[in-house]
User: Fold this.
Amino acid sequence: MVKETYIIGEIGQNHNGSVDIAKLIVDLVARPVKEEVFGLDLKPMNAIKLTKRDLNEELTNSQMNLPYDNPNSFGKTYGEHRAFLELSDEDHFEVYKHAKSLGLEFVETLCAIGCMSLLKLFTPDYLKVASRDLTNIPLLEVMAETKIPIILSTGMAGKKELDDALAVITKYHSDISILHCVSQYPTQPDNLNLKTILYLKKHYGQYRIGFSDHTIGISAPIVAVGMGAEIIEKHITIDRRMKGTDQAGSLGPEGVNRMLRDIRVTERWLGEEDLYIDKSIASAKVKLERSIATKRELKVGEVITEETLHLLSPGDGYKWNERASVIGHKVKVTIPANEIIYPEHLS
Assistant:
């Protein structure tokens, strides 16, 4: 049975303050996925994710008032920039309903206690704790109290930070997922350390373990799935050239399709922990495997010796470990050189 990876498309702030753009990204995620060579219809993403901030609980006044003059800015100050990118609770609800109408689940990152007002309108399938907030104990407390399943990212955490967060949440419930993550955008190859997934599976195996990816491309999520990640989270957008700090490091439509295709195919590749001859290779086994054959012509009545034998394809005759069934037997009909020896050739 194929074990399905839970794949989250992270919109984050890639909606650029527009509900319509957010909905277009949801449409992108919900598109069917096709593997062309074998004609496989593959499952699309499982969920999309938005992020909600409360600007009263975001940065100091001095930081919010700093000039923010760069090509990705949506305001003169960083505070204005952040305010432009914030969708209202009602906007989030609208995107939630759109995702649900397309069969997708919905994940919400809440960055402050003030963001809990969102839950008056709808209940996400998961609440996400951003890496920056793993040590935000008051926020973890109120999120855990809701009993909504929680996903933790470990991008800025060591073992102590993770254990402290788990101690708070597990006072209320244990429906927790932990994502290996590196809070470097984009993450340099030498810093990714995907083997942390194996560490988490070994030491925190009672929880679902996954990977939140900030690398360029799609290779890292595929490897992560091969290492046992059960959740993959990846930034997505409708156009990587759009204005915005996360756009260039996100997957566009074609990248989303390729990642989904490769993850879903990888799920099938993994199979089961066993060694067996698959029925699909039966014809290749007969065609290519070797059987006991004659080195020279063997005449009627001749006793077969090992020196007169070698191995040739096809593989529908005696194998070398069955040579006792051939050596010492008399030939019943003449067998030309370099031909397979079959039971009917032997007396």
